[in-house]
Write the structure tokens for this entry.
Amino acid sequence: MKNKTQKTTKYPGVYVDDKGNFFYQSEFGIDRITGKRIRKKGRKDVNGKPFASAFEANKELTRLKREYHKVNSYSNYKMTYEQFMNSVYIPYYQTNVEESTFSVRKRILEKIRDRFASIPLRSISVEDVQHFRTWLLTSIENGGAGYSQSYASLVFGTFRKSLEKAVEMQYLEMNISKKVRAIPKGKAIVSYWTKEDFEKVINQIYTEDFYEHLNFVMLWVYYMTGIRVNEGTALWWNDVDLKNKRLRVHHMLIMKTRREWKRNSYTKTEDGKRIIALDDDTINILTMWRNRQLEIGLGNSNDFIFSYDGLPMIKSTIGRIIKRYSQFAGVTRIQAKGLRHSHASYLINEFNVSVLVLSQRMGHSSPEITLKHYAHMWSGADTVIAEEMSGNIKIETAEYTKIIFNGNQVIKKKE
């Protein structure tokens, strides 16, 4: 039964309400699996703009019907999840993220694809989704994937997004995975070195050896600046102002191998581009290292700082360097990105740096992001303040009361 407040137009399925606003409302067909009628209704075009006329509403309705019938052709209707991933989602994802992001996530996409490979896209059930969720969170000993909660959350979230794209493309009427609870990320704990740990590590390095000298410089710069791993590997000597003691962080390195790399003129985020002030010790260490490089024909403006042969260092090599010297020093082994967290810890615990300064130094888009990652490191940082507060306020209470209580507990001031 039609709403009495809406009027028809010369276009079938296009109406105008009592306020003069145009909209479309039409049946597109019957779902072959559920048997339910498929109805569509809308008041805006593909760009989210309200219809200005019945003609515009009809144009959008025609487009949707054409797209619907195209997608719901027999071949697409029987499309398997593997076909959808290979022909639609993976290509879409690859063109919408950074090359480095895709190279990391590609394996996850393939794992999900292979899990549901032969199942028709429209036949994936709530039970299938729930079993997948359980498998992700179950240990290998019990027949599961054995993933950490944070990684399981990432995989499951990626799967949900793939089905959301299928809905957007009208291959599906609804995202069945939303009927199953998402996997919480959990608290990711990144190990880091304290000042004492770092001192033990660098004391294991024999800097007279050229390669070990490079190891020392890398660990030192990462620890003392907090730059991201791929920001550090991208550094050229023209990024350092040894005279004015400044480090320019404006690039990141995307690598496949040491010989296959791309130096992007931007960082992870827009606010990642920054200038970092360097301390005198770091300036001296960099100066000595550059002189050492110059002896073998490196150290020019467009040469990598972290290099022993003109080629950049890769993340896995940095990880091996950390592993080697942490074992020698008898301290906790950390990830390469743990050096960034170590820098934050160093500034907070040694200098009680403000969140604003730390945010700028780390290249975060806002102090809120900094607090999200490092708020726990300030625990106990207010102890000094509490000690300074002691006795700061002078206390001299009154020698007699200045109020009188009557039967109704009304407070009156003494005359």
Residues 70 and 76 are 8 Å apart (CA to CA). The mean pLDDT is 87. The chain has three domains: 7-72, 81-179, 195-351. The longest strand covers residues 22-30.
